[in-house]
């Protein structure tokens, strides 16, 4: 019953996404209506996903986390899409903001699809780990795209903070190797959840540290390059675990 409600509400959200994209070329009123509708739908979707996660029972917290992460990704993508829609409102079709809007819409649909795949996999214990890992790989790729963008972080942090965050990558790597050896679904799901947080924290800390006032342009470029290389290497590790 939760699955049906999630599917129905997710379908409505995809329709809202279409209205948001088309709303950029129409009146402010239509755009506001589309934004309000999508906000209402994402709230409903979050509620039914949380109910679905609760129905799994407290003996499977890692799978509950996988579901909650999936709806978080959809909510973040919707927020980015609304921002891109506002930026593209009343702009000509060849304006760069229109390309950003199309990119944001694509990410939105990808994340809704990922949520639906995750919901389906939750019902089949044999595929839970695989799906959790696939979702984490997609999430890390999206985080890497943000990391590689020219957008300057809102705040900066010290290089020490960046170094501290790399410890999470070391722990997640050990967990991933162990999961690849055991091939137990619960180990793979735990790895997916840990990897997601470890890489996101590392990328955020690395970018914030690279924009610290005391950091030179040369050091910034190197830090950002190594952050990218570390993430690509970790993605390769997760792909291997998925293969195994």
Structural overview:
The protein is built from 8 helices and no strands. With 244 residues, it is mainly α. Helix content is 83%, strand content 0%. The mean pLDDT is 91. The radius of gyration is 19 Å and the shape is flat. It holds the Pfam family Talin_IBS2B.
Précis, in short:
By secondary structure, this protein is mainly α. Helices cover 83% and strands 0% of the residues. The chain is built from eight helices and no strands.
SSE topology sketch:
Blueprint: H1 2-23, H2 28-55, H3 61-88, H4 96-122, H5 128-148, H6 159-182, H7 185-210, H8 217-243
Main location: cytoplasm
Keywords: Cytoplasm
GO molecular function: actin filament binding; integrin binding
Radius of gyration: 19 Å
pLDDT < 50 stretches? none
Q: Give the DSSP E fraction (strand runs of 2 or more residues).
A: under 5%
> Helix/strand/pairing class, anyone?
mainly alpha
List keywords for this structure.
flat; single chain; Alpha-catenin/vinculin-like_sf; A middle domain of Talin 1; 2 domains; 244 residues; mainly alpha; Talin_IBS2B; 83% helix; 8 helices; TLN2 protein
């Amino acid at each position: 019953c939760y699955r049906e409600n999630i599917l129905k509400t997710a379908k409505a959200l995809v329709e809202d996404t279409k209205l948001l994209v088309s709303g950029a070329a129409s009146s402010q009123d239509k755009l506001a209506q589309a934004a309000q509708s999508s906000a209402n739908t994402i709230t409903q979707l979050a509620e039914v996903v949380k109910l679905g996660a609760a129905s799994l029972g407290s003996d499977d917290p890692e799978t509950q986390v996988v579901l909650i992460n999936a709806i978080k990704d959809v909510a973040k993508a919707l927020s980015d899409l609304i921002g891109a829609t506002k930026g593209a409102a009343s702009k000509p079709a060849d304006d760069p903001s229109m390309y950003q809007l199309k990119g944001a819409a694509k990410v939105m649909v990808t994340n809704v699809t990922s949520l639906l795949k995750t919901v389906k996999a939750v019902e089949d214990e044999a595929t839970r780990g695989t799906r959790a890992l696939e979702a984490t790989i997609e999430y890390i790729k999206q985080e890497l795209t943000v990391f590689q963008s020219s957008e300057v972080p809102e705040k900066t942090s010290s290089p020490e903070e960046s170094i501290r965050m790399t410890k999470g990558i070391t722990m997640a790597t050990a967990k991933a190797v162990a999961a690849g050896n055991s091939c137990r679904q619960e180990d793979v799901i735990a790895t997916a959840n840990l990897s997601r947080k470890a890489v996101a924290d590392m990328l955020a800390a690395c970018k914030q540290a690279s924009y610290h006032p005391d950091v030179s342009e040369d050091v910034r470029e190197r830090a950002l390059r190594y952050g990218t290389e570390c993430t690509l290497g970790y993605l390769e590790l997760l792909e291997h675990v998925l293969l195994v």
